[in-house]
């Protein structure tokens, strides 16, 4: 079985979750990263082709995770059932995710926030909930971008700025720090990370 090498801020998988790896020949983190990236590329292709506009539904959020990770993990698209070092109690995931998506729909309908700020707020809420065993950051970033492109008709956020957010570097450190600040109800660093200038 693979012994993953997690970057700072990543959520470790428990042995049962690791046993959900569909490819037994994978033994290194690099091989796993490559396999996941290929799956994500396939998922993004599906996303670009789908005509669905229901991106702010739990059904879509679940299907998106399955499309992004379902060729690698047999639990992809299934809410986690175990407690983690972050995230809400597993019993609350469905209700909390539905509330986050409903709020994002309300912001869209009422023009509560500028599009990118709405996307950043949704992204943080979904990461905070941590619905799945793994891939939550990537899933939440892609979900936020899908909302921007399909519902607001604007360009996605440049989350990576040319860096690899799956490896420890300055960009990932800034991202993790911004998420922790948002957990403390200070969204400023995460908005700045996403390229939103602070209002004077």
Automatic annotation (TrEMBL):
Residues 56-196 form the Fido domain. Gene3D superfamilies: Fido-like domain. It comes from Mesorhizobium huakuii. This is Mobile mystery protein B. SUPFAM superfamilies: Fic-like. NCBIfam families: mob_myst_B (TIGR02613). Pfam families: Fic (PF02661).
